[in-house]
Structure formats: C-alpha cells, structure tokens
Amino acid sequence: MPMAMETAKEASKKRKRKHASSGEGLRKKDKSTPLPEANPPSAALPAESKKRKTDHATVGNGEKKKKKREEGDLEERAEVNDGDDDEEEEELSQSSSGEEDSDGDDKKEVEEHEEDEKQTNGQENGEQLELPSLNAVSLPQTEAEPQKFSELDLSEKTMKAIADMKFEKMTEIQRRGIPPLLAGRDVLGAAKTGSGKTLAFLIPAVEMLSALRFKPRNGTGVIVISPTRELALQIFGVARELMAHHSQTYGIVIGGANRRAEAEKLVKGVNLLIATPGRLLDHLRDTPGFVFKNLKALVIDEADRILEVGFEDEMRQIVKILPSEDRQTMLFSATQTTKVEDLARISLRQGPLYINVDHSKEHSTVEGLEQGYVICDSDKRFLLLFSFLKRNLKKKIIVFFSSCNCVKYHAELLNYIDLPVLDLHGKQKQQKRTNTFFEFCNATQGTLICTDVAARGLDIPAVDWIVQFDPPDDPRDYIHRVGRTARGANGKGRSLMFLQPSEVGFLKHLKEARVPVVEFDFPAKKIVNVQSQLEKLIGQNYYLNKSAKDGYRSYLQAYASHSLRSVFDVHKLDLVKVAKSFGFPTPPRVDITLAASMGRDKKQQGRRNYGSQPKHAPKFKRRSDD
C-alpha cells in the first residue's frame, strides 16, 4: 500500500502541474490577443476581466480535483480517469472562454457607453477630446497592385458610396496611390488633370476619419487645400457623395462666401474641411473655437497652381500653424517646379513616396484627345469663332480668353446677337460663379467662355470641344486647359487653338512638352462675314462700345505680360487688325502702360516663367484718331 500511496501522490503532482500549465497557457493566450485598435483605452478593460475570470476558473478546477482525490480510488483506475478528467476540463475551459468572451463584449459595450457619456460631459465642460494616435490604427494594406475598388478592403460604408457613384475600376493614380495612403505614407503625386486624383486622396482621408471614429467634438481631422473656389466646390461635391453613409462631418471655406456662417460651422466641428488658402489662413488665425489640433491629414491639391497664383506665403504660414506630429501629408501637382519641391520639403515627412503616372507616357495629354490649331489673322479671329460656335450649337464647348474683360465683352456681344453663352471669370461674385459652374456642368450642350479660372482641376462632364481663342501663357497652361475634355479612362474630346502667323513658334514649345497637335483647315467660304454688322453694332451701342474698349485694352495688357516674349511679341501685333476683331474700324484710344506693368508683375508672382522677361513693359503710343 505504501507504493500505491506514493503513486497516487505522483499522480496528484502530475495533475497539478498540468492544471498550472493549462492556466498559464490560457493567460498567455489572453495576453497575446490583439486589442481593438480603433479605441484602445476602452478595449483594455475587457481583456483584464477575461484574465481574472480565467484565473478564477483555474482555481475552481483545482479545488474540485483535490476533493476528488480524497474521496476517489487512488489506484491505477485513478490514473486512467485522469486523462478523461483532463479532456473534460479542456472542454470546460473552452466553453468557459466562450462565455467570458460574451461577457467581455457586454462589458465592453457598457464601458464604451460610459466613456461616451464621460466624453460628452467633458465637451460640455469645454474640454477637447484627445484622439488615439494614427499609429494605433491598423489601416488596410495590399501587397499586389489592385485593379478594382473592391480589392482594397475598404469599409462597407465607403464601398457603398463608391458603388452609388458608379465606380468600379481604378485609374492609374488611384491604383498606385490609394494603398500606400491607406497605410499612412506621405505621398508626392504627379498626375495630369483628369487622372482621378480627387478620389485618390479623398478615399484614404475618409477611411482614416472613420477608423479613428471622428466626431464633431474632435474638430478637423483632414484639410484639403485647393487653388480656386470652383475646384474647392467640386472636391466638396465628391466628398459629399463619398461620405453619404458615414457619420463624420464635412464642410468648405472659400473666399467670397459668408465668413460668419463658416466660422459657426467650424466651431460646431467639421471633420473633413475643403478650403482655399487665403480663407483657411484667415480662420486658422482669427476663428476662436476652430479645433484643428487633432489634424491627422493634410492634402494640397494642384500645388503648382496654388503657388502660381501667389499663395506661396500663405502656404508657408498654414504649414507652420498646423500640427505636424503624426500628420500624413498628400501633395499633388500636375507639373513639378522648384517652388513645388520647396513646399514638399517643408510639408512632407522624411522619405515620402513619389508617384509619377506620366513619366513613361509618350504624350503629356490624354490619349483620347484630338488636338489641333488654326492659323488666322487678327481681324478674322472673331469671325472664325462666331462661325465655329454657330455650327456647333448642339455641342458642349469651353472657350478660353486671356482676361476677365475679354470674357465679359464677348459674353455680352454673343448673347446680344442671339448666340447664348455662359461666362465665368474672376471678377464675378462668388454666388454668380458657383451658379454658372453648376449650370454648365448639368447642361448637355452649350458654350462657356472663361478665363483660366476654370482651367485647373475642374471636372465638367462630357465637354466636346476646348477652344483656346487667346493662346495660353506656356505649355503647362495649354495642358491644363485641354484637360477639361477627354476626362476619365475612355474619355474622348477635341481641342482647337487659335494662332496668328507671328505665333507659330509656340508649336515648337508644345512639341518639346510632348503635346501632339495638327493643323486644322477652315475654308474661307465657310466663315460667316459679319464684320460690317459688328462694327455698326459697336458704334451704335454705348454699353457694348465701352465693354469692347475694356476688352481691347485687357487683351493688349495680357499680351504684353506674356512669359514667352520671343513668340508673343506685342510689337509684332497689327493693332488695326486687333481692333477690328473687337468691332472697331480703327484702334480706340487707350492707355495701357501702367496696367501692363501691373499685369506682368501679378502674373509673375510665384511662377517659374518660360523664356526671358524684359525689365520694363512696352509702351504704346496714343493715337489721335478715336
């Protein structure tokens, strides 16, 4: 019997060792289970509760075995039953674990509810909520380059919005840009207009806000900076569609809008904010209650254009004011200049990902675009434009001019002679510009005449023709203008550029910029000659006459400030022929010396010019005959 007792003791020790190792393994397993990363503080408590329950279950099982040892048979049968007991205890442990998970989930919900109440009370007391860091969020990553949005492992709400927008396949900038942005990388993207980059930066931004569970009280988590009001409105429209099923808030602040109304919305909390540089800087400085300390992502769209229109100082101040810790930055630019590189250096973190989807392309413009030019003397330019528009009344056309006054005059003239057009330029009030933009977007046919305010980034559906009545300042502007048509993966469109005989040297610059153009021929017999009627109308109508003079003066000012002086030399212009295109039989008397200098200086601001710039603007002699 002593031998039997010794065996029983050994069996008891074995069972104790097994139970101890089983409990330790269970504790290790609980410790290694990943916590819900989107809300680490509240998720930690259920894990500790689970550990306590596991230890309690282990102690309970040990007491049961001790009692069984004292009452049961201590011989060989006990050793056989020991294996069965272990299996039963393992099953009990598994079922107990399932119950603990359920209890843990219930407890987690209660704790999250309590935490929300605490946060709400904190907000009422004027406290700002501290968000988890971006590194605590596990955003989806993909190894192979995806082709469809469904392969990105996006949230269900985002996928539903993308499906509502009728998108399925991604463009190249989206395929190459979205995965690293979802992974938290800083990106410097180079993609020509119409490439789909708006969704490329909005989708990661919305996913980040959703993953961090941003609420209005958290303030602004993403800021998108746009060069123009129209482009900002367009990005806002895309964001509205993309966030249709999300609870996060979005808003827009732009010049010309009601500042007080914007400030009220910012104080309430705008999670995704689209802005123009000037108005954004204004709110950052002078709007109390605008919470931007939780900023997690900064998007700079059309960076080259932002700098070209003179916002370099504002951008430096904005980047300096915004928090940089844990901030992801996305910078997109159709062209790469020295100033863009400087902006990237101060805004991006070390080691950004550079994505260029155009470097391997043969042409700088999209493939579905048929591009041409016509050589035409100054006095025939308006006649050709009038004939072209009359023959294409069923088409959707955008006509580009060099100045606001030129747009204003031609819009008034064409509408007066029953050739209806819409006009868009920088001197209009913001509400007028917004209404015109959306009216033309929703139209299936019609003509919009505008300045370069509409040439950058705007996505206007189904444009058939781009007409550059006044030549662009350089090949970069040409590329952005023609980018309003043939948009999307399989987009088709045409462009026509008017050139005078003295301006054909511009074709060489287009060739160097990899822009393919061919000459279009317009037979003289098909051009409607309304010159005499035009001159009679301008001579008799006081308001049109005044508008024509302003347009004529602005045209010469813009020409004098052209960056490619070797091609667009104002001294080579035949002013008599130029005047005829504005409806004057002889050149009107205008003073443009001072204005030309001002125009040149404004245009040079923030811009890397093509060609050399003379020190002084050319002076024009006044004519005595009016």
TrEMBL record:
<feature type="compositionally biased region" description="Basic and acidic residues">
    <location>
        <begin position="69"/>
        <end position="80"/>
    </location>
</feature>
<dbReference type="GO" id="GO:0003723">
    <property type="term" value="F:RNA binding"/>
</dbReference>
<keyword id="KW-0378">Hydrolase</keyword>
<dbReference type="GO" id="GO:0006364">
    <property type="term" value="P:rRNA processing"/>
</dbReference>
<keyword id="KW-0690">Ribosome biogenesis</keyword>
<comment type="subunit">
    <text>Associates in the nucleolus with the 60S and pre-60S ribosomal subunits.</text>
</comment>
<dbReference type="GO" id="GO:0003724">
    <property type="term" value="F:RNA helicase activity"/>
</dbReference>
<feature type="domain" description="Helicase C-terminal">
    <location>
        <begin position="368"/>
        <end position="538"/>
    </location>
</feature>
<dbReference type="InterPro" id="IPR044773">
    <property type="entry name" value="DDX18/Has1_DEADc"/>
</dbReference>
<dbReference type="InterPro" id="IPR025313">
    <property type="entry name" value="SPB4-like_CTE"/>
</dbReference>
<protein>
    <recommendedName>
        <fullName>ATP-dependent RNA helicase</fullName>
        <ecNumber>3.6.4.13</ecNumber>
    </recommendedName>
</protein>
<dbReference type="GO" id="GO:0005524">
    <property type="term" value="F:ATP binding"/>
</dbReference>
<comment type="function">
    <text>ATP-dependent RNA helicase involved in 40S ribosomal subunit biogenesis. Required for the processing and cleavage of 35S pre-rRNA at sites A0, A1, and A2, leading to mature 18S rRNA.</text>
</comment>
<dbReference type="InterPro" id="IPR001650">
    <property type="entry name" value="Helicase_C-like"/>
</dbReference>
<keyword id="KW-0547">Nucleotide-binding</keyword>
<keyword id="KW-0347">Helicase</keyword>
<feature type="domain" description="DEAD-box RNA helicase Q">
    <location>
        <begin position="147"/>
        <end position="175"/>
    </location>
</feature>
<feature type="compositionally biased region" description="Basic residues">
    <location>
        <begin position="616"/>
        <end position="626"/>
    </location>
</feature>
<dbReference type="InterPro" id="IPR000629">
    <property type="entry name" value="RNA-helicase_DEAD-box_CS"/>
</dbReference>
<dbReference type="GO" id="GO:0016887">
    <property type="term" value="F:ATP hydrolysis activity"/>
</dbReference>
<dbReference type="InterPro" id="IPR027417">
    <property type="entry name" value="P-loop_NTPase"/>
</dbReference>
<feature type="region of interest" description="Disordered">
    <location>
        <begin position="597"/>
        <end position="626"/>
    </location>
</feature>
<feature type="domain" description="Helicase ATP-binding">
    <location>
        <begin position="178"/>
        <end position="354"/>
    </location>
</feature>
<keyword id="KW-0694">RNA-binding</keyword>
<dbReference type="Pfam" id="PF00271">
    <property type="entry name" value="Helicase_C"/>
</dbReference>
<feature type="region of interest" description="Disordered">
    <location>
        <begin position="1"/>
        <end position="128"/>
    </location>
</feature>
<keyword id="KW-0539">Nucleus</keyword>
<dbReference type="Pfam" id="PF00270">
    <property type="entry name" value="DEAD"/>
</dbReference>
<dbReference type="GO" id="GO:0005730">
    <property type="term" value="C:nucleolus"/>
</dbReference>
<dbReference type="Pfam" id="PF13959">
    <property type="entry name" value="CTE_SPB4"/>
</dbReference>
<dbReference type="InterPro" id="IPR014001">
    <property type="entry name" value="Helicase_ATP-bd"/>
</dbReference>
<keyword id="KW-0698">rRNA processing</keyword>
<dbReference type="InterPro" id="IPR014014">
    <property type="entry name" value="RNA_helicase_DEAD_Q_motif"/>
</dbReference>
<dbReference type="InterPro" id="IPR011545">
    <property type="entry name" value="DEAD/DEAH_box_helicase_dom"/>
</dbReference>
<feature type="compositionally biased region" description="Basic and acidic residues">
    <location>
        <begin position="105"/>
        <end position="119"/>
    </location>
</feature>
<comment type="function">
    <text>RNA helicase.</text>
</comment>
<comment type="similarity">
    <text>Belongs to the DEAD box helicase family. DDX18/HAS1 subfamily.</text>
</comment>
<feature type="short sequence motif" description="Q motif">
    <location>
        <begin position="147"/>
        <end position="175"/>
    </location>
</feature>
<feature type="compositionally biased region" description="Acidic residues">
    <location>
        <begin position="81"/>
        <end position="104"/>
    </location>
</feature>
<keyword id="KW-0067">ATP-binding</keyword>
